[in-house]
Amino acid sequence: MSTDTSAPRVVYEGKYQRMLVRGTWEYSERTHANGLAAIIIAVTPEDKVLFVEQFRVPLQAKCIEMPAGLVGDIDASESIEVSAVRELEEETGWTAEQAEVLMIGPTSAGASNEKIAFVRATGLRKVGNGGGDDSEDITVHEVPRAQAAAWLVEKIAQGYQLDAKLWAGLWMIEHHLDGTPRG
């Protein structure tokens, strides 16, 4: 096992990320928001799962994701739960009475320090159209929960990129973290 404790060397720093080299390892860090993002697991009162679609520049493709966003990017003191509800409303037009952090873990441990918080949003109600902020062009999809997995597989066949965290989110809709069914 190789553990390099030397100081990292910054090779690039932008508004949102910096690129570092530590020994022979190259990786990126978030420059704000504590390196934490929230992915929101949200099911409407009509039992529809909320997904968002947007073009992602790094992939040069349309992607299907669960609503998500940086924690504390607008207000550094904002909690994970408050950030999650704000992002849910901004991206989908739905708000939530409650938000519960289910787990936090790395998104790509070999490439970035970013961590993701899976947040279950409950008590949903429609308050707007969604679509994101001025820099985003988000399409909202409300998919019946019973057909969500099949819908995602269909999107793959249509050439969409799917965020792999979608599958974990779908599992968390149906299960507690110990694996027992919800219900």
Automatic annotation (TrEMBL):
GO terms for biological process: nucleoside phosphate metabolic process; ribose phosphate metabolic process. Residues 33-166 form the Nudix hydrolase domain. Coiled coil: none annotated. Pfam families: NUDIX (PF00293). The keyword Hydrolase applies. InterPro entries: NUDIX_hydrolase-like_dom_sf, NUDIX_hydrolase_dom. One of its GO terms (molecular function) is hydrolase activity. This is DNA mismatch repair protein MutT. It comes from Stenotrophomonas ginsengisoli.
